[in-house]
Amino acid sequence: MSGEKAKKIVLGVLKYFTLVFGAFVSLLPLVVCVITAFKTPEEYASTNVMTPPKSWLYLENFVQAWKQANMGLAFRNSVIILVCVLVGSVLTGSMIAYVLSRFKFTGNGFIRASFLFASQLPGIAMQVSVYQIMYSIGWINFMPGYIIMMCGTDIISIYIFIQFFENISTSLDESAIMDGCTYFGVFFRILFPLLKPAVVTVMILKGVGVYNEYYNANLYLQNKNKYVTVATSLFKFTGPLGNQYNYICAGVIITMLPALIVFILCQKQIYSGLTQGAVKG
User: Fold this and answer.
1) Distance spanning both ends of the chain, measured CA to CA
2) What is residue 278's predicted lDDT score, i.e. its pLDDT?
3) What is the DSSP string of the chain?
4) Which residues in the chain come in under a pLDDT of 70?
5) Residues 229/217, Cβ–Cβ less than 8 Å
6) For residue 277, which of 186, 172, 206 has the smallest C-alpha distance?
7) Whole-number Å distance between alpha carbons of 270 and 234
8) Whose CA is closest to 69, among 236, 202, 258, 215?
């Protein structure tokens, strides 16, 4: 066997070993979560995490997780927040990108550089000042205020839209304006429909972050009886006397199902949006 052939074999083995190991590491917590969700409290206390439950039809954990964590209210609040944030982020991000890419004015470069600088700052480092602002204007335990804050912390979407705008010819704008169209008409009637791949990309990235957001939701929506979200609802089963992981795992599966259903139904659009978003610019 030649040295070149042996090298290819070794690299192939390492490649597949890395893929298998990565899949194992990614799927192991999910497998443990599914197994634990179907165990009775007695089984959970007396068996290890990889021991299968005696019955896969034991659904009491899911019933208790839904009731005790008030997950009906949590899903309602999360859907309201998610829809409002996505609409707000898409509209504001695309409008800001339209102005920065189509209009040359003093300070344009400074604004872009400021956005870039802000995107490099860790969010946790800004929480003290953000919390002071939210507290001073009375937006703690105020869902509209939380929604506005989440819309205003999305700089990446602005750059995604800028990259798309810079690949759309300005002749479309000029032709529309010569025909008597206003700038708002140019944006909403001509350019915005062309941004579908960018809109899909932004909605995926922003939607996943908002749906899974725990830190900000826990910090600014402190009334858990009224403003509980999907991410904060599961902490109903944690406390100083221990954690009820059988209920937590059942709740995790419940919260995963909507995202899984959306992914299965819209995977073609998701892959298309991410792919086109990656190659633009």
Assistant:
1) 46
2) 46
3) --HHHHHHHHHHHHHHHHHHHHHHHHHHHHHHHHHHHTS-HHHHHHS-TTSPPS-TT--HHHHHHHHHTTHHHHHHHHHHHHHHHHHHHHHHHHHHHHHHHH---TTHHHHHHHHHHHHHS-GGGGHHHHHHHHHHTT-TT-HHHHHHHHHTT--HHHHHHHHHHTTS-THHHHHHHHTT--HHHIIIIIIGGGGHHHHHHHHHHHHHHHHT--HHHHHH---TTTS--HHHHGGGG--TT---HHHHHHHHHHHHHHHHHHHHHHHHHHHHHHHHHHH--
4) 1-2, 153, 239-242, 269-281
5) yes
6) 206
7) 28
8) 236
Q: Of 144, 123, 120, which is closest to residue 220 (Cα–Cα)?
A: 144
| Res 159: pLDDT | 85
Q: Cβ–Cβ contacts within 10 Å for residue 88, how many?
A: 17
Short-list 43, 39, 73, CA closest to 59:
39
Q: What is the 3-state secondary structure (H, E, C) of 58-119?
A: CCHHHHHHHHHCCHHHHHHHHHHHHHHHHHHHHHHHHHHHHHHHHCCCCCHHHHHHHHHHHH
